[in-house]
Automatic annotation (TrEMBL):
<dbReference type="InterPro" id="IPR036396">
    <property type="entry name" value="Cyt_P450_sf"/>
</dbReference>
<dbReference type="InterPro" id="IPR001128">
    <property type="entry name" value="Cyt_P450"/>
</dbReference>
<feature type="coiled-coil region">
    <location>
        <begin position="112"/>
        <end position="139"/>
    </location>
</feature>
<keyword id="KW-0479">Metal-binding</keyword>
<protein>
    <submittedName>
        <fullName>Cytochrome P450 20A1 isoform X2</fullName>
    </submittedName>
</protein>
<comment type="similarity">
    <text>Belongs to the cytochrome P450 family.</text>
</comment>
<keyword id="KW-0408">Iron</keyword>
<keyword id="KW-0175">Coiled coil</keyword>
<keyword id="KW-0560">Oxidoreductase</keyword>
<dbReference type="InterPro" id="IPR002401">
    <property type="entry name" value="Cyt_P450_E_grp-I"/>
</dbReference>
<keyword id="KW-0349">Heme</keyword>
<keyword id="KW-0503">Monooxygenase</keyword>
<dbReference type="InterPro" id="IPR052666">
    <property type="entry name" value="CYP450_20A1-like"/>
</dbReference>
<dbReference type="Pfam" id="PF00067">
    <property type="entry name" value="p450"/>
</dbReference>
Length: 360
């Protein structure tokens, strides 16, 4: 869907070529996570230290802080050392915000084409993002770096420069937002249940003890994965999905031509009471059932190869939540209601405020 909205070719090759390109994209995500796991832990601990420095009564602007964390994580792991500088991240955040806000709203409701000023701002921001990516591609091409990032894997594949630009653009845009909103909603929901936090803390303590958080051990955090799956479901994290029809298809009497953009109303399916009893209740224990996980996986939400950005977000969220819950109790601000704003990725309608207290 993003490629269509950005005016990129969605495939352009044969079915097998498109499949190989998607496989390369998925492998690039895996390699970026593996080679940058210590960096991910470090960035999570930086946010923890920031929150530890606050008095317990201070309200924390959760959405703002987590978006900053996600932008740092995604840019460093996707595009490399250029984004070690704070100013580069701030600049990226500004133009990223302009592009994403119009993708999430302006395109879908048609308002972008009706406002020449907004459209020009969007086009300028998109050109800046593409220019930055082209510069990074040129700098890293044919060179060896100590930090292997997402874009390096794309350049090692059999892709031309336009394909590398498109795929790195898609991941930079979607990866940041999906990661930020998954982490934000997970923490929001955790503040509403002391029992769920206790259960999660117990699992984190059992798996890591006083040792470091490692990529090998996070695979053992079964309840944490249940918390994140239930976060995706309850928040309806991506209420709409889409894909281009590879071949001509049929639904009942209707023919779907090849290259038709097919929309899936996932937000409706995720709240269907016939599949999810008490659908509005945040209940990670429902994912203790293998049959429920299979239903969830069939929708593309399991964090597998079907959505590499979500797979990336699950890993980042697992590390961040583990780092935070290990040392902090996450508490709701009295009277705070987390209202949902549905676009391509669901966000909180207003800033989500929380408080934190140290575990003793």
């Amino acid at each position: 869907m993003l490629k269509s909205l950005l005016g990129y070719q969605s495939g352009g090759g044969s079915v097998s070529e498109d499949h190989m390109r998607r496989k390369l994209y998925g492998n690039a995500v895996t390699a970026a996570l593996q080679s940058n796991f210590p960096l991910l832990v470090k960035l999570s601990e930086e946010l923890l230290d920031k929150w530890l420095s606050y008095p317990e009564t201070q309200h924390v602007p959760l959405s703002q802080h987590v978006l900053g964390f996600a932008l740092k994580s995604v840019t460093r792991m996707t595009l490399g050392s250029t984004f070690e500088e704070e100013q580069e991240v701030i600049h990226f955040q500004k133009i990223h915000g302009t592009v994403w806000s119009e993708i999430g709203k302006g395109f879908l409701d048609g308002s972008l084409d009706k406002n020449a000023t907004r459209k020009k701002q969007y086009q300028n921001a998109l050109m800046q993002l593409e220019s930055n990516l082209k510069k990074i591609i040129k700098e890293r091409k044919g060179r060896s770096f100590s930090q292997h990032v997402f874009i390096d894997s794309l350049m090692q594949g059999n892709l031309n420069e336009q394909q590398i630009l498109e795929d790195s653009m898609i991941f930079s845009l979607a990866g940041c937002i999906i990661t930020a909103k998954l982490c934000t909603w997970a923490i929001c929901f955790l503040t509403t249940s002391e029992e769920i936090q206790k259960k999660l803390y117990k699992e984190i303590d059992q798996v890591f003890g006083k040792g470091p958080i490692t990529s090998e051990k996070i695979e053992q955090l079964r309840y944490c994965r249940q918390v994140l799956c239930e976060t995706v479901r309850t928040a309806r994290l991506t209420p709409v999905s889409a894909r281009l029809q590879d071949i001509e298809g049929k639904v009942g009497p209707f023919v779907i031509p090849k290259e038709t953009l097919v929309l899936y109303a996932l937000g409706v399916v995720l709240q269907d009471p016939s599949t999810w009893p008490s659908p509005h209740k945040f209940d990670p224990d429902r994912f203790d059932d293998e049959s429920v996980i299979k239903v969830f996986s069939s929708l593309g939400f399991s964090g597998t190869w079907k959505c590499p950005e979500l797979r990336f977000a699950y890993t980042v969220a697992t590390v961040l939540v583990s780092v935070l819950v290990r040392r902090l109790r996450l508490l709701a601000v009295e009277g705070q209601v987390f209202e949902m704003k549905y676009e391509l990725v669901t966000s909180t309608r207003e800033e989500a405020w929380i408080t934190v207290s140290k575990r003793h």
